[in-house]
Amino acid sequence: MRRFLLAALLVPTPLVAQAPIRLPAGACNWQSRADAVWGAAIRSYSSQYDASSWAATQALGLPDVWPRYGDIPGAWAPSSPTNLADYFEVTFPQPLIAGEVWVFETNGAGGVYAVSAINLDGSTTPLAVSTPARLDEHAAQLVVPVEPPRAIAGVRIATSSAVADTYSEVDAVAALPARMCSAGQLFLPAAAGLRMAPGTLASPLPPGAVWASGVARFTSQYSTSGWAATQALGPPDVFPQHGDLTGTWAPATTTAIQDFLVVQFAPTMAQEIWIYETYGVGGLWLVEDMSSGTPVALWADAPGPASLTEARLLRITLPQPRSISALRLVTSPRAVQRFTEIDAVALGPAGAGVVK
């Protein structure tokens, strides 16, 4: 029996999203927009470097560091440059109908990988998702369309300093009533994702399911048999059971910041992705399309325990059908302090019907 301490981390439920762009300094004159509404208070955060110069509150108000780039006081920074996933949440002075959100990165540009709206009821709705990356050392401004415009109370920003290879620092966040800047699309709309308990499922299988049929790559596996990477192929063996049970892929340790598994499919025009998590639920935090060999982020969220007692089906609905032949599932065992075990992965073909 493997026993571990459990960590608590806020994990919002992703729903829908649009597509942002990342602009270099000078491409958009924020000072010309008197209607910009800037962050006024911090609702929560995963970590901060200190309580003053790089505190979460440094992300409030107008930019202090922008357009300068570097590890400069006046921007929020997480506690460590090796953190895989961090977040902070800002609220505005009052709710507004937002048509666009701006996020100013002043160090570790590329580390911001998800932007979510804080709704009036306190829930969150993803607006944009990307694969975190290490970019050139220049300040960058994320411009996130909110289409159609909607009432929001604030914004949640998720970052990966570990991938950016330095502190991922954010200087300011603003919301505007209408779009201002556009300079080409760098991110895809985030897919809607929901972790469903077995008892809430009308059917545990998607209509016309196309199951993962091959393993292209993995960082580690607990064994070459009971918890091998190949155990994630085909229909579920363990689900709806929950526990550290043979028949699933498990990484080698619970201490890795990041592990991943790349599974292959017969090429499929997919509308949905179904991923069966049977232990360490919530440790899966990023799903990428690897069909072309270049990762394209489809869904992302901050890793953390989502259920300690139940298996969950992560059901991802894509904004538009896309041809998929390979997916990379990225997990963080350290974030849940358990083995992140995946039982099966399926594609739901477009036009095959929808399970309610």
Write the layout of secondary structure elements.
Layout: E1 21-24, E2 37-38, E3 41-45, E4 86-107, E5 112-118, E6 124-129, E7 140-159, H1 161-164, E8 169-176, E9 192-196, E10 210-211, E11 214-218, E12 259-279, E13 284-289, E14 296-300, E15 312-331, H2 333-336, E16 341-349
Antiparallel strand pairs: 1-7, 2-8, 3-4, 4-7, 4-8, 5-6, 5-7, 9-15, 10-16, 11-12, 12-15, 12-16, 13-14, 13-15
What class do helices, strands and sheet pairing give?
mainly beta
| Overall body shape | globular
Write the CATH architecture name of the largest domain: Sandwich
- Percent strand: 35-45%
| Through-space gap between termini | 36 Å
Number of domains: 2
Helix content: under 10%
Q: Would you tell me which CATH topology of the largest domain applies? A: Jelly Rolls
Indicate the mean pLDDT: 86
Oligomer: single chain
